[in-house]
User: Fold this.
Amino acid sequence: MQNTYVCPRFKLNNGNIMPAIGAGCWLGSAGEDEHVTAMVETALDLGYRHIDTVGFNSSSGNEESVGRALKKTSIPRVDIFLTTKLDQKDHSRVLEALDTSLAKLGVEYVDLYLMHWPMAFNESDRTLQPGESPTFVETWKEMEKLLATGKAKAIGVSNFSVQTLSVLLAQATVVPAVNQVELHPCLPQHDLLAFCAERGILLTAYTPLGKHKFADDPTIRSIAEAHGPETTLAQVLLSWGVQRGTAVIPKSLDPSRLRQNLRLIELNASEMDALNSLHKKPGMHRSMCSFHSQTLGGSCFGWTYKQLGWEMIAGGIHL
Ligand SMILES: NC(=O)c1ccc[n+]([C@@H]2O[C@H](COP(=O)([O-])OP(=O)(O)OC[C@H]3O[C@@H](n4cnc5c(N)ncnc54)[C@H](OP(=O)(O)O)[C@@H]3O)[C@@H](O)[C@H]2O)c1
Assistant:
């Protein structure tokens, strides 16, 4: 396979460069080792230079699998942008958790280290409520110290809203480089995008294809068709994501879809408008992720949508 593709790139608030398209490495369950290793090897061959993985305290996660692919490649480490995340169970042991991730990945540093969720779990897996220590502000203060070690080139957050970011920014010394959140036309989070852009925080879109559940949507289909018979829905969605100024981390185990997901098209203003307002169609505004719980009137990992600052009702449906 030949790498001939040059991916668009974003400059982070620390001056470092992040390729706009990354390979999402979380397959939905932990420990699918060979699949993840093969996927990352293929992605690197195809031209991906941004890998997004995750460290889980309590399971094998997939850092080791990603690490195996990184070990095999001849691409210099410096040319790969590598992101991993601090698990909810590790908020009280930030440096130790990063060291564990580095050992699993077999690298000396990550380009970006994200606080995966604002809420921490204690040793017995109980979710700490806002105000209980370590709060996400306390965790962030520990993450800020990582920059001096050189083990994380940039730090950021994930699953933060305008509400939780406002609390964080009021006490932070370092502005997060990135906030990684669910973003696709059913959940465009326009207010969060504007808030982050004003503060120099790059949004990364997870689940940017909406898990490819848009196959029947006539708006996206007609935009794809207007760009020629070869253009796919996935390319429309990823192009929309990058054109509105967000990085995107689609996941695919299939080499031809991995290749396709690297090829962006240029959308015109009316196509961008149509995608920006797709969520306004009745029943469309919702999350595509399965970790939303019906408990507490709608929650994720023990925090209500109100605590998270998410305008949703039970089941991940937007108000
Ligand atoms: N920070 C967080 O809390 C968080 C949460 C969730 C996800 N994430 C990250 O975001 C990444 C991506 O999210 P995701 O996996 O939830 O959703 P996604 O990337 O929106 O969708 C993945 C699904 O789309 C299919 N697909 C991929 N490319 C396609 C194409 N060109 N045509 C048709 N189908 C295609 C994949 O199937 P095939 O594999 O068969 O191609 C898979 O079923 C994850 O891997 C993870 O790294 C982060």
Observations:
- The chain has a mean pLDDT of 93.
- DSSP finds eleven helices and 15 strands in the chain.
- The first strand starts at residue 9 and ends at 11.
